[in-house]
Design goal:
By secondary structure, the chain is of the alpha/beta class. It is about 20% helix and about 35% strand.
Amino acid sequence: MRVHYLQHVPFEGLGSIATWMTKQNHLLSCIRLYANDPLPAVDDFDWLIVLGGPMNIDEEEQYPWLIVEKQLIKQAIEQKKIVLGICLGAQLIADALGAKVYAGQHKEIGWFPIRTTEAVQQSHALGFLPAQLTVFHWHGDTFELPEKATRLAYSEACLNQAFLYNEKVLGLQFHLEMNRQSVQQIIENCASE
């Protein structure tokens, strides 16, 4: 499989996803939006991974590449590509699907539990998850559940922690990809939050 991932900042990468992708012999390509790398054509990939970042989805003036990134995400969904969004990536997917993205009542920063819904057991995407697990969070914004999407997880502070749309589009508000090194990088670069 050809996997393109969109990276918003140099300190938020694939983490443990890279190890898994390599073991599966998938071809990985990084698009560094912060370095103005050109976006791929939708036909150039099978999977699109949209990573996190400290910006908000509506900061297009400060991050003009958000405009074309949103267009690419919509096109990938319309062409039924596999799309995974993590944190900011999930918010961008929710926005592409017409859901409201907004500032949460509380920031979730650190390790907090999430609970999975009954629907997760029927999901190919996250069916391996237990009913409750502690995951890494680093977000202030959240989103409404997109129309026709299935909620897969929630937390005390955030109703929509994970969703699945059309069996091919997965949004995760939390960070399953984090490993020791990636947690350290985000702490070093976002300590002011």
